[in-house]
Amino acid sequence: MRQRSLLILTSVLTTGALSLTACGSRDDDGGDNSGDGESTTLTIGVDAPLSGENSATGLGIQYGSQIAVDDANKKNLVPGVTFKLKALDDKAQPATGQQNASALVGDKTVVGAVGPLNSGVAQSMQQVFNAANLVQISPSNTAPELTQGKNWQSGDKKRPYASYFRTATTDANQGGFAAAYAVKDLKKKRVFVVDDKQAYGAGLAKIFKEQFVKLGGKAAGTDHVNTGDKDFGSLVTKIKNSKADMVYYGGQYDESQLITKQLKEAGAKIPLMGGDGMFTPTYIKTAGKVSEGDLATSVGVPADTLPSAQDFIKTYKAKKYKGDYGTYGGYSYDGATAIIKAVGAVKDANGGKLPTGDELRKKVLEAVGKSNFDGITGTVAFDKYGDTTNKQLTVYQVTKGEWKAVKTDEYTGEAN
Amino acid sequence: MNTLPQQLANGLLLGSMYGLIAIGYTMVYGIVQLINFAHGEIFMTGGFGALSVYLILPDSINIWVALPLMLIGGGLVAVLIAVGAERFAYRPLRGAPRLAPLITAIGLSLALQEAIRNFYPQADKPRVFPELGEGSYEIGSITFKNADLFLIVAAVVCMTGLAFFVRRSRTGRAMQATAQDPDTAQLMGIDTNRIIVIAFAIGGFFAAVASVAYGAKYGHVEYRMGFLMGLKAFTAAVLGGIGNIYGAMVGGLVLGIAEVTASAYIDGIPGMGEFGGSSWANVWAFCLLILVLLVRPQGLLGERVADRA
To answer: Which of A5, A262, A286 sits opposite B97 (nearest CB)?
Structure first.
């Protein structure tokens, strides 16, 4: 009896494992040889959540990069080299992100990767890319420790991985910017801070709270939730009881859209503010009318208001791509373009010939660090930590069922 | 402001939902000793069934007219899937080692999730579910809305109905007999296959009711919602004593109230600030489960499980 059930279990497991590896290997043999020949095909990898949680913004990253690749091919940005995109779904899971990183490293035609969306996923990918000297540019990661090391807050900044860059600015700027807006423009005095315990959310909430208190505000309370939670009845009652005049949420829209809904249904008429993780139309759609007046900060300048991004937006809409381009689409475009331009620079420096194998990746990585061009979101250049030099941030507010930019500024008051 | 009444109400609502789903686990376990891990997904499909009915109905329809139709539609979908699962997935495995139906249940649960995600329009993201009107009421210091009201009423009606059915009706008594001893029950002329199908159907219908309440309360349904709710409801069933239908409801309520009060008050205890808050709610709920099972391994109301499990 026992043996039979064991047998069944083993066979189920084996079949499962076999079908999984089958999927894996199919992905890998797409790699045609790089190097000689008049036309070489190189791949730009993309890793983002393309299904489930966060997928609206994740798809914006995929298609933003896709447009960059199409443009580069159309304009023949690097003569003799055709680029293609390989997008992998990390489902916002760090473990899946790491597998995807290995898959991209394993594909010899990949010269660089755009993504991921989530800071927590980035942490699991950095080392894999770094070991292979494969450049990674995230359009959206904002956790400071990704570029400045664990002890960034005490001023001991140390770049952990040389292969990691980002076109989004950090939460040190975003949290401080939000706190300054809440205190100075909104005149808020008591804030209830909630976060989702993830690298991004917890970090952002902490910075916001510190800056809010530093500017003379008071923390009415703090709480942490789990990602995937649906019932916030207990939290909402606590917030209501704390007499806070505002809630700050560090995390993604999946939870904040339910918190704001349940909060206002419970009769607490105070706005909820959050970071770029909840800056998406899905938030307004799910929360409904009660989201009116809620606020979110996001990195950079709204894509819609940038003259340089108009072509990009037009293409995105014309191709009827899914997902939200508004938040990170432009940064993904610029990230992918930075990699493509780096390939061009390497080719030129090498006398018009591409180096092969690991040499190519190493050279591209170096060239990305020296990027300096006008992208669609502004100047694309990186400091010695791999952070973007573009520190523009914007506050958005839900007005008549849409995110409207209410203030754009360069954040100068560094958190430390 | 004293928050205790509001927090207890929050817990009661959450607990009623757990309880309604837990009925499905406990009835099926009581009769065939199978833990139907796909039950969480049956709950989920019930919600999508109800949503489909709402989408077919004209926009102008009053929500209180639509609600019974949605309950019927969602219930129908959930019952059909539950009964279909029994007929095609579990019945061929009756008499097989325990592990086989268990793994089938897990596989079925994944299959249902993926089926909804891939084939239901736009189900890869949460779908907006109609709420039962806007606004909220206040009684003393308790605030609640229509969906909360619906949930409580539905839970009470379902439970009383089930209690009457099991105690008074012929089929209900046949059900008790099958649970006590399936072989003897069959010898006495009870069609046990029919009884098992009825158990699956009732569980499916209750799950669909819970699903409509979930959709109305949180304003959306999504393909992943069955996993966590299923797990919690299973915990509630074990807590109350698996196999006992009153235990499922009591277990659900205890679990819901424990979760809510733990996240509301534990961080107020001096020195416990680090262990409170919403993120620790599950930890405390499961601590409670462990404690109860240490003292009463058969669960709060369980009677005759030790000889079976």
So the answer is: A5
Q: Which of A:67-106 have CB within 8 Å of B?
A: none
Work out how many CB contacts closer than 8 A connect A with B.
99
Domains of chain B by residue range? 17-230
Cβ(A197)–Cβ(A226) below 8 Å: yes
Using CA atoms, how far residue A234 sits from B41, B47, B273, B288, in Å, is 26, 24, 16, 18
Contact A228 B228 (CB under 8 A): yes
Q: What value does the mean pLDDT of chain A take?
A: 87
**Interchain CB distance below 8 Å, A52 and B224:** yes
What residue segments make up the domains of chain A, in order of their start?
40-169+305-385, 171-299+393-410
B33 touches chain A (CB under 8 A): no
Which stretches within A269-377 are classed as H helix? 281-287, 310-318, 329-349, 357-369
Q: Which residue of A has its CA nearest to B99?
A: A5
Q: Exposed, middle or buried by CB within 10 Å (0-12, 13-18, 19+), for B47?
A: buried
**pLDDT tens, position by position, B160-211:** 999 999 999 999 999 989 988 888 999 999 999 999 999 999 999 999 999 9
Smallest CA–CA distance, residue B99 to chain A, in Å, is 6
- Do residues A203 and A415 make contact, with C-beta atoms less than 8 angstroms apart? no
A40-169+305-385: CATH architecture: 3-Layer(aba) Sandwich (3.40)
Residue A22 has pLDDT above 90, yes or no: no
Asked if the C-beta of B3 comes within 8 angstroms of chain A's C-beta atoms, the answer is yes
Share of chain B above pLDDT 90, in %: 63
Query: Nearest chain B Cα to A241, which residue?
Result: B1
Return d(Cα A142, Cα A168) in angstroms, integer: 6
pLDDT tens-digit profile of A187-234? 999 999 999 988 889 999 999 999 999 999 999 999 999 988 889 999
Give yes or no for residue A265 having a pLDDT over 70.
yes
ipTM associated with this complex: 0.82
A234: nearest CB among B214, B218, B263: B263
Q: How far is the C-alpha of B254 from the C-alpha of A67, rounded, in Å?
A: 54
Whether pLDDT at B129 is above 60: yes
Rounded to a whole number, what is the distance in Å from the CA of B85 to chain A's nearest CA? 19
CB contact under 8 A, A234 and B224: no
**C-alpha–C-alpha distance, residues B73 and B53, integer Å:** 6
The hierarchical CATH code for the domain A171-299+393-410 is 3.40.50.2300
